[in-house]
């Protein structure tokens, strides 16, 4: 006999929001750094009828693609349910670029303990997806892999993540992309959020150019941001 799913409605009366993390937000350090999240509750779970894809533009030149999900009748995505205070969820939405990069959908996730949880999930916004799925960087995929293990996702899913291919990047490219992301995240939490999101959007669109124009455009866009990042790091190192 199939056991009926009991839908968890505890968050509705409290104003809290259940959020389903499936990408780099599986990693607790990433969540803390990005939006300072302190979940009220958490539980691993499965979202049926969807599959994990890497078709979101990344952060050139070292991050070719980021994670999203797509509807797939035979697919399933394992992830972590996080119960967040309303203000924390709003901060998370802002850190993900608001509605510029992702749209939010309500889905029912089956927690490993059997509860059915109505949760918010981020899906690539229309027009933002890459024309074909990309290959994530080693750094980004390792965040997801380690986050999956720390979130106690099922061993079979963790093994599947381990088997996914990843792209390599030069140390210089990794440094540039990491520093850009650092500046972007700082700006996204303040009044410069719109400027930061527009800058990232322009950087991502350089991937549509030919090899030489792409390198020139990325250099022009990255140079001032990297200058700011280097300056901020220098200030933080001062006693």
TrEMBL record:
Substrate binds at residues 19-24, 140. The keyword Cell division does not apply. CDD domains: GGCT_like (cd06661). InterPro entries: AIG2-like_dom (IPR009288), G-Glutamylcylcotransferase (IPR017939), GGCT-like (IPR013024), GGCT-like_sf (IPR036568). It comes from the Bacteria. GO terms for molecular function: gamma-glutamylcyclotransferase activity; transferase activity. Keywords: Lyase, Transferase. The keyword Transferase applies. Residues 19-129 form the Gamma-glutamylcyclotransferase AIG2-like domain. The active site is at 96 (proton acceptor). This is Gamma-glutamyl cyclotransferase, AIG2-like. The lineage of its organism: Bacteria, Pseudomonadati, Myxococcota, Polyangia, Nannocystales.
